[in-house]
């Protein structure tokens, strides 16, 4: 069975937001304090990915709004 940490690492490295969401919904399981710290670091990276995606979507929405206003 793959570990929570390995699944999270893979999802963050691949920037797979859907997979990250699935993993984070589960309760983290870790065997040591170091592993817990590493999970925490990857969760922080995942948050950065979600924030970047949010920013990208906002920009796209603004572009669509401008196009809509221009064509009306």
Ordered list of secondary-structure elements with their pairings:
Layout lengths: L3 H10 L3 H9 L7 H39 L1
Helix pairs in contact: 1-2, 1-3
Q: Tell me the overall shape.
A: rod-shaped
The number of domains:
1
Structural class: mainly alpha
The percentage of residues in β strands lies in: under 5%
Major sheet: none
Percent helix, as a range, is over 70%
N- to C-terminal distance: 56 Å
The beta-strand count equals 0
Radius of gyration: 17 Å
Secondary-structure element sequence? HHH
What do you see in this structure?
By secondary structure, the protein is an all-alpha fold. It has one domain. It has three helices and no strands. α1 packs antiparallel against α2 (17-25) and α1 runs parallel beside α3 (33-71). The radius of gyration is 17 Å and the shape is rod-shaped. The N and C termini lie far apart (56 Å).
Features of the shown structure:
72 residues; mainly alpha; 0% strand; rod-shaped
Give a brief rundown of this model:
Helix content is 81%, strand content 0%. The chain is mostly helical.
């Amino acid at each position: 069975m793959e570990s929570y940490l390995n699944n999270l690492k893979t999802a963050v490295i691949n920037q797979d937001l859907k997979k990250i969401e699935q993993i984070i919904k589960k309760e983290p399981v870790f065997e040591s304090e170091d592993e817990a710290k590493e999970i925490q670091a990857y969760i922080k990276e995942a948050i950065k990915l979600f924030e970047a995606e949010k920013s990208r979507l906002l920009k796209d929405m603004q572009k669509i709004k401008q196009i809509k206003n221009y064509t009306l």
